[in-house]
Every structure is written in C-alpha cells, then in structure tokens.
Design a protein that fits this description.
- By secondary structure, the chain is of the alpha/beta class.
- It has three domains: 105 residues, 3-Layer(aba) Sandwich (Rossmann fold), CATH 3.40.50.880; 186 residues, HUPs (Rossmann fold); 95 residues, GMP Synthetase, Chain A, domain 3 (2-Layer Sandwich).
- Strands 2-1-3-6-7 form a five-stranded parallel sheet, with helices on one face.
- Helix 1 links the parallel strand 1 and strand 2.
- The protein is globular.
- About 4% of the residues have low confidence.
- Pathway: Purine metabolism; GMP biosynthesis; GMP from XMP (L-Gln route): step 1/1.
- GO terms for molecular function: ATP binding; GMP synthase activity.
- One of its GO terms (cellular component) is cytosol.
C-alpha cells in the first residue's frame, strides 16, 4: 500500500471506527489493530506516519488494564492517546479530538499526505490483483448487492474474463433485480456471467414452511447446493472472490472487544472446496464501498441499493410462502421504491420495504366484497441498526403509494403503515 497511514491501537474503546473514519475523512488512510501488536509488526507496515492509542471502557482484560508494549512508545513516529490515562504520550485527550486537533496531529505532527481516495485505491487494487492472480481464474457469487457488485466490477477491471460470476435467482429477488444484474454485468461490463434461474427449485422446497428460521435455513442450504453444482461445472478455478468489508473484520472482534457477530461472507462456499480468497474491499467501510462502485462506473441504483436480507422477499412474505402473496410483496415493494424515489426519500430513508402477512381481511374491490391480503409499509432510519426510528412520511406520498398498491397489486385490499420503532420491534418482521 502506497498511501500514508495512521494506526489506531485498540485499548478497549467502543469508538475505534468513529476515530478511523474521522481520519479517513481527512483523506488519510487509517486502520485499527489490537493493543498487543509488536514493534516489529508495526515496522513491517509501509508508510506509517502516526499512532493513536485509543482506550475506553473495555480496557480491562482478565482483571488487568491493558497497555501497549513499552517499546512502541519509542518506535519513532508521533503518537497521541485518547482516554488512556497511563499512556506515555506527549499529547493525551479525554475524548475523541476535535476536527482541528485531529488535523493538527495528522498533518502537522505526522506530516501525512492526504492521498487516500477511491481513484488511488482502485489503481492500487487493480495492480495488486493482477500481480496476485496472474493468469488464473476467480469465482464470485454475484448476488446483486452492493458489496458483491463492487467486487465484481473491480475484478472485471483487473482481470476481465478470468472472473467467473455466478448469479443464482432463487425466486425471492425484488422486481427486476436479476434482470438488472444480467443487464449491467453481462451486457454492459461484458462479464463472464453464469445465470441460474432456480426459482422453482427454491419455492418448491419452501412450500408449506412457516417458521422463519426454517425458511432461512432452507434458503441458505439450497443456495449452497446450487452454487456448489455450478462451481463443479467450471474448470481452472483457483480463487474465490469475497465481499468482505472492513466492518466485517472489526465486528469479528479484537482482544479488547466482544465479537458482535461472525462473518463468513462466502455465499454458498462448500466445506470441501479449496480456494484461495481474494478480498479486495476488506479495507473499506460501507460508504467507501459505494464510492468505489461509483468510481468504477456502476449505475446509481446498484451502488445505493437498499439493505436486503439474504433470504430476500422470503422473510417479507410472512409465514408459509405462497406465490400470490410473494407476487404481492414484489409488486408493492416496487411501487414503494418508485414513489420514494420520486419524492426524494430514497436517499433520506435508511431502509424501506413492504411485507404481506399470511391472513386476509374483508374489504370492497371493484364494487364487490373482497377477502384479500394487506400490505404493510415499513420505513425506518438508523445509524447502527441496533435502534431505529420511524420516518415521518408526508401524507400525500402515503396516499399516492396506497392508491397505487390498491389499484395495481392483485389480491390486496388494505394498506397499513408500521409505526413501531426498534425496540420493541425489529427492523424486519421475520
């Protein structure tokens, strides 16, 4: 890596990512490492211009307050500490430094250059990927989500037809999503794309299954089988492309932080398949992944795609999935997305979607009694997905959405708006 970097050593802070992102916003690359990194490991890193010791509430490990190796204080680069009272640094802060003080440390004390940007990142990654992969082939499960799409675009730029993308349509995609994957990657980027329509296979396996966890397991396991079958048809695959991003690594835990969740990230990787991993986005936060996608020329709707659960619409068609309700979810979701985009809400609202419960209500449609399903709209905002608030959607927008759903979606006679924050509700219904 050619960019200057600021190293953040985790001594129990819960604000490591905030600090790393603050440095990156200055145009300087930063990354987080555990407190017990050695001087030798630090010296083996290129272009380290400064170190920040970041302490906090998790600084006690096995009954003892952790600290860095004393030799690190004499490693020859500027160093500050945040909320680490025993640190032997010239500058210490009780809380995260202000923008001005952080600028002074990064550019004044460390003499770092602001050379962290997506154009440089892509250029370096392309060069590195070509050197690493050579003339071998890479396999990538391309879901159409932001991470896999950006990985695909980056690998296409680096190695072209040596990348083999497999897109599995499990029948639970949103309206037009599989078609857009084929349009962008096969027709526009000329990717080596294998498209598998496994809709009937998945829906048959899910027939009569109402328990949410069982639905998720069936969808996940069946994806593994389909991906495995397609991978076995291919020759000469040496690498597996993976959409690991920096928060995945951070959330998997350090010595002073509890693991938030484990991330495997390999869409359908069978245990007996032996590949070397290629993870070109593992340095990036989510907003940086989107910026990378934009720089690579991916369309805006793909780069700014809504968060979408792995089981897709399967967990928004509540209870046992039926084809009529699945279609109602798909069509109502498309209307919601269309109207939110027209109203300028698509960038303001963190996540919005529709669900269709597995019960009917009495209503009137086409001047006759109807006994049909309801559509529930959910629109929430969140910073960390741990808590969420409800977006206050303009009444006229809601009326337009309601009118269109009732007019255009079959088997629906009622539309509701979910007013439940998280907690006590969760973001998804299942």
């Amino acid at each position: 890596m050619k960019e200057d970097r600021i190293i953040i050593l985790d001594l129990g802070s819960t604000k490591n990512t905030d600090l790393a992102r603050a440095v990156r916003k200055l145009g300087v690359y930063s990354e987080i490492h555990p407190f017990d990194i050695t001087v030798e490991e630090l010296k083996n890193m290129d272009h380290v211009r400064g170190i920040i010791l970041n302490g906090g509430e998790n600084r006690i490990v096995e009954g003892k307050a952790v600290d860095v190796d004393s030799a690190i204080y004499n490693c020859g680069v500027p160093m500050i500490s945040v909320d680490h009272p025993t640190a032997k640094c010239r500058q210490q802060f009780d809380e995260m430094p202000s923008d001005e003080k952080l600028k002074q440390f990064v550019f004044g004390d460390c003499k770092a250059e602001a050379n962290w940007n997506m154009r440089n990142f892509i250029s370096e990654q392309v060069e590195s990927l070509r050197e690493e992969i050579g003339d071998k082939k890479v396999l990538l499960a391309l879901s159409g989500g932001v991470d896999s799409s950006v990985v695909a675009a980056l690998l296409i730029k680096a190695i072209g037809q040596q990348l083999v993308c497999v897109h599995v349509n499990h029948g639970l995609m949103r309206k037009g999503e599989s078609e857009s994957v084929v349009e962008v990657f096969q027709k526009q980027l000329h990717a080596n794309l294998v498209y598998v329509d496994a809709s009937e296979r998945f829906l048959s396996k899910l027939e009569g299954v109402s328990d949410p966890e069982n639905k998720r397991k069936i969808i996940g396991n069946e994806f593994i089988r389909v991906f495995d079958e397609e991978a076995m048809k291919l020759d000469g695959i040496h690498y597996l492309g993976q959409g690991t991003i920096y928060p995945d690594i951070i959330e998997s835990g350090t010595k002073t932080a509890k693991m938030v969740k484990s991330h495997h990230n390999v869409g359908g990787l069978p245990k007996d398949m032996q590949f070397e991993l290629v993870e070109p986005l593992k340095q990036l936060f989510k907003d940086e992944v989107r910026a990378c996608g934009t720089e690579l020329g991916l369309p805006d709707y793909m780069v700014n795609r809504q968060p979408f659960p792995g089981p897709g619409l399967g967990v928004r068609c509540l209870g046992a999935i039926t084809r009529d309700r699945l279609e109602a979810v798909r069509e109502s979701d498309a209307i919601l997305r269309d109207e939110f985009e027209k109203a300028g809400l698509d960038r303001r609202v963190w996540q919005y979607f529709t669900v269709v419960p597995d019960f009917k209500s009495v209503g009137m449609k086409n001047h006759a009694r109807s006994f049909d399903y309801m559509v529930i709209i959910r629109a929430i905002n969140t910073v960390d997905a741990m808590t969420a608030t409800i977006e206050k959607v303009d009444w006229d927008v809601l009326e337009t959405i309601t009118s269109r759903i009732l007019d255009e979606v079959d088997n629906v006679n009622r539309v509701c708006f979910d007013m439940s924050p998280k907690p006590p509700a969760t973001i998804e219904f299942e």
